[in-house]
Write a structure and sequence with these properties.
about 170 residues, mainly alpha, Peroxidase, domain 1, about 0% strand
């Protein structure tokens, strides 16, 4: 849709301090950390919508905090990544955190997302999809939240069933 993550990857190849600055920006409200401006503003150009601007800054910071050199695996949607983490970790607190995130309003969202992305350090997140979904977070129909919930529960059940079948085969 927009190539923003590609833009950040290109900047990162030229200068790895991009990630450090964008990671640091997460300690501030989105769009309020001035040193991050050179990395996000050229991509935004004439964008006047405050929500869209905030989302771009938030996703840039999350991308930087989650970036790993040589990460393997196909990028997953956010809901699927959360399900994969719960299955891999066996932690039921993932689901509670996920539900809390889905219920977050615009002001709580940056904090909840930072927590969740930190938890998903072993998962490969599709940041293009994350950006596109977050742009519609405030939709009255809660489409993004519904899409993530479906991804989470469909993949949670699929992963759990696969794991159960593998354990049965081993024990037989």
């Amino acid at each position: 849709m927009n190539g923003f993550i590609e833009w950040l990857e290109g900047l990162n190849e030229k200068d790895t301090k991009v990630r450090a600055v964008l990671r640091r920006s997460l300690a501030f409200d989105p769009g309020k950390f001035v040193p991050a401006y050179p990395y996000v503003e050229p991509f935004l150009k004439d964008e006047e919508n405050y929500w869209r601007r905030d989302v771009f800054y938030l996703v840039a910071g999350l991308w930087a905090s989650h970036w790993r050199d040589g990460r393997s695996g196909l990028p997953m949607t956010f809901g699927k990544a959360c399900a994969a983490h719960q299955v891999a970790s066996g932690s039921t607190s993932t689901e509670r955190r996920f539900i809390t995130l889905l219920d977050a309003d615009s002001e709580q969202l940056p904090h909840r997302l930072r927590q969740m992305v930190a938890l998903l350090k072993e998962q490969t997140i599709d940041f293009d999809d994350l950006l596109n979904r977050l742009l519609y977070w405030n939709d009255d129909q809660k489409r993004t939240q519904n899409i993530w919930a479906r991804d989470f529960y469909r993949n949670l059940n699929r992963e759990t069933d696969t794991k159960s079948n593998s354990n049965k085969e081993i024990s037989e």
